[in-house]
Each structure stands twice: as C-alpha cells, then as structure tokens.
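Re: the request from the purification team.
They wanted to know what the chain is likely to look like in 3D before they choose a buffer screen. I agreed to run a prediction and write the result into the notebook, where they can find it.
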Amino acid sequence: MFFYKMINKLIFLLLPIISFGQSTLSGEVTNTEEVEGIHVFNKTYQKYTITDSNGRFKIAVRVNDTVAFSGIQYDLKTVVITEELIENDLLEVALNTKINELDEVYLGYRLTGSLGIDAKYIETEVPMEIALTNSFRGLGKYSGVLSSDGQSQVKNEVLSSGGGGNILGLLSMMMPKSNKIVVPEITPLDYSRDALVMYYGGDFFSGHLKIPKTDEERFIHFTELDSVIVVSLKRRNKFELLHRILQLREQFETNP
C-alpha cells in the first residue's frame, strides 16, 4: 500500500513538469488562396498534421522546436517555436506562392568533365587529339643516357607490384590489425503505399496528394528511385521525404 501511495505522489509531482514541457499550439495559414491540406510538420518533435478548410491547425510543440509548413503550391517555410508563441497560443503563417521556372535549355554538346570523352565531340579546326599531341612536339626526343641521382635507384616494392600501384597493400600496412570500429547499421524507412499511409495518415493519397486510388501504386513506382527519396529513406527523415513527395506530385500526371 505504501508503495502505491509513493507512486501516486510521484506522478502528481511530475504532471506539472510534463505538461509544461509540451504544449498544443493553435495556428492558421492566412493566405487568400487554397489553405486546406497544408502540411504542418514538427521536425524536432516528429509530429505531423494538416490544415482544415479554413487553414487552421493544432500541433504539439515545445520551446525551440522547428515547425515546417509545406504545400504543393507554396514554398517551404519554417518557424522556430518560442515561449511567446506558446503563450499567445495562436500562430499566423503566410506562405509564399511558388514561381514555376522553366528548366535550363542546353544548346549543343553538354560537357561531361572527362577530357577524353569531351574531346571527341567538341568541334575545332584541328582535331583535339592532334592538338594535344602537337603541344608536346616542340620538346623533341632525347636519345642520350640520363645521369643517375640519389633517388633513381630506390625501388618502391609496394607501388611496383600489381602493375600500377598496390594501394590496398599500402593501406593495409598502415591500418592497425586490431581495435576495429563497428558502425551500427541504420535500417532505412520503408517506401510503399502502406508505409506512407502509416507515416502521414489514412487519407494521405486521396486527401493530401489528390491522387486516385487507381494511381497510388503507379505514383510509388514513379518516385521510388528518385535520389532525394532514397537519401531521405536512408536518413529516416520523414519531413525531407514528405517535402520531396510534394515536389514530385507536381510532375506526376494521373489518369483521367
């Protein structure tokens, strides 16, 4: 009996501390355009919600949390939560409308950065291979015997073996044989229709992305190999993942 009384007293004492640390913040997106379905994500506390038809929302926050706002037609915006915002209990957010920019247009051959490859496609008065060779012809040929020096007779056994440099052998000599550091493997987030519903809610496709049920799996296949998606999954960063999904939604065409 005494034990249960102590537990009850402890809970009673901790309740004010717990409630003080976490608060529910009310807010409103004040744009005159579409304000329903704006994604509100507490990046620090990993909480997520969306705005209602009037642009209003409620989300759990703590002081110094970073809350991000994102929508298909708006630029990403972040707000750092302060004690003043929590005390006022109303956060008004105005989002900037995205400006659609045309992709860059490249005329002619696009350089790869490899001299050997680019030289074959760049048009010059003299072929690039010949031009490069001519640059060294003025040096002529030397048929005499080079005088020896203090370094010519030194033989590097590590680099001479293997026909071009045994770098792995050199590294193995330098690395210690024991005290290996084992880095724990991080399991990436799952990426599937069901996984996204679990992360962001049951109406994520139909309500937030406006994608019909018949196109849900096609959207997954359309986005699953995107480099930003892959990196977000490896980092287990649900906010970064959500932001990229919203960007790719603009490029995805649903069946009529």
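For the purification team: DSSP finds eleven helices and seven strands in the chain.
Please add any questions underneath this entry.
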